[in-house]
Amino acid sequence: MNKDVVKVDIRGILPANNSCALFVGNDRKVFVIQVEPLMGKVIGDFLREVPKERPLTHDLINRVFLGFGISVERVIITDLKNSTYFARLILQQQNELHTERKIVELDARPSDCLALAAAQKKAIYVSAALFETVEDMSSVLEKMNESGGEID
């Protein structure tokens, strides 16, 4: 990977009434992406490997990917415009003989990208330019962790 991207992880999830805050970052900086409450739960369930009675949409997508020999290579959170984050989903498909691979890059919502990356335990990146501009929310995450997941 080059210097144009920074590796990050999902560092915390804070559910709220109308949204869910995903704390994304590394040891240097953490920023927040607001997602729908259900997406926050889906991502949290993948991170905690919570078993499900029936497959949900992202489970189905993963099973379709598996059936066609497709895996998530990585996801990249690329931009922030008008308070909306943008992301790319990079997929890899191996042929039946494992001699060739095809890479496909798609526009996708960051929440979908993060859910699929969490489900497949794949790398999450953010563009270096974006990472430099986002507000550091590390102190909020620390406070949340100290208080057992609640923010004043």
Helix content: 25-40%
Give the count of structural domains: 1
Taken as a percent bin, the fraction of beta residues is 35-45%
Biggest sheet details = 7 strands, mixed
Order of helices and strands: EEEHHEEEHEHH
Helix and strand composition category: alpha+beta
With strands numbered from the N-terminus, the spatial order across the biggest sheet is 3-2-1-7-4-5-6
The CATH class: Alpha Beta
Count of DSSP H/I helices: 5
* Count of distinct strands: 7
What spatial form do the alpha-carbon principal axes imply? globular
Mean pLDDT: 91
List the helices and strands and how they pair.
Elements: E1 5-15, E2 20-25, E3 30-35, H1 37-48, H2 57-67, E4 70-81, E5 84-94, E6 101-108, H3 110-120, E7 123-127, H4 128-133, H5 138-146
Parallel strand pairs: 4-7
Antiparallel strand pairs: 1-2, 1-7, 2-3, 4-5, 5-6
Overview of the molecule:
The chain starts with a strand and ends in a 6-residue tail after the last helix. The longest helix has 12 residues, at 37-48. The protein has 5 helices and 7 strands; from the N terminus they run βββααβββαβαα. It is an alpha+beta fold and 152 residues long. The protein has one domain: Roll (Bifunctional nuclease domain). Helix 1 packs parallel to helix 3 (110-120) and helix 2 (57-67) packs across helix 3. It has a 7-stranded mixed β-sheet. It is 32% helix and 39% strand.
Features:
Bifunctional nuclease domain, 152 residues, alpha+beta, 7-stranded mixed beta sheet
Summarize the structure.
By secondary structure, the chain is α+β, with helices and mostly antiparallel strands. It is built from five helices and seven strands.
